[in-house]
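Morning!

This is the sequence you dropped in the shared folder:
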Amino acid sequence: MTALLLMLLLACAGGASDDAAKEESEKEEVVVDPRTLVEASSVVLGAVADRVIASAALTSEVSATVIPEASGVVTRLYVEEGDAVVRGQLLAELASPSLDGVWQRASAEVDRTAQDLAVAERLHAANALSLSELDVARRAAEAAKLSLAEAGRTRGFTRLKAPVAGTIATRNLRFGEVAGPSPAFVIMDLSRLQVVVDLPERELSRIKPDQEVTLTSAWSAEEAAKGRVLRVSPVVDPASGTFKVTVAVAPEQTVLRPGQYTNVAIEVDRRASVLTVPIRAVVWEEGAPYLYKVVEDTGEAEPGDEPEAAAKEPSWWEKLAAMQTEEEKPPELPGPKRKVARSAVELGYRDTEAFEVRSGVNEGDLVVTVGNLALRDGAKVRLPGDPALKEAVDQKPATPL
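The structure's back. Tokens below.
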């Protein structure tokens, strides 16, 4: 029994040592690159516009709501949502027994008074009826005709027609249901879209009619259209301190639709041939903008650096190299050798994609656009096209990490 327990303990110990050896082997295969992988972009000359930004929902300048003037049962529907219509086009028909009855009674009254008038005229010709009695018959016939015309117009309330040309935006009628004094159709002219925004009064002197406007869908930057400032209200609302600006959307666009919430950017000024960087290249700290330039890592201290302070706080990679023997030292990093230099910048106009940079960079400088939030000044970096450390290790498998 004792021998059996001893064998089991040895087997377990052997299995544990095998697992430990396997884990140690896996650790030896891990290659940690001390450089941060970043993306960068060059500082280039470009044009940057100054824009006043606002947001509001799109509407149509030409919009009409069709409301039945009389109640009735829907018997005919001639259009659907999305259909284009012209002014005066028949949209639907309603059946109203009460209106039909009024028209029929008026029509019968016209026939009766017409016959009475004919009899009165014959009697008056035979001197059997006075002129005043003949006038009474004439007035009764005229009143009956007016009543019939009114009944005809009222009966026409059951024929719903388009008051303007446009597109059917909403249809609220259904076959067989009773339509009452509520919106039955909404018609909009999709070629005459506009957006009305309220801007703070400090912008009043900068907004002028015919300025170029860019409109972008609030949920997708790819859905965009151009427009122009159509009207600028000269009055400031004392309650809100804002004034109203009406922007007309380009009629040929088909991306934006009425009711869509859009971001409105009114261009008030533009500067050409200025230094520009992508918006995402700029990092902010306590309200001050700066960016990281990718520079060559020569191993020498940059002007303004403090070598003594740098020696007191070496990187973990340098600490590791100092603690190991010559054979255990990590492999040399593959080139090109790069690091970042933090640079404070003065910004100018901000466009939808770029900042104007007035100082802090030069044309052609390489600035970090992705990965810059966790960087520190002097950190080693590599770009997507640079060789990775693992590739260098794989080429020299005998050199341990």
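Headline: The domain at 63-187 is CATH 2.40.50.100 (OB fold (Dihydrolipoamide Acetyltransferase, E2P)).

More detail when I'm at my desk.
O.
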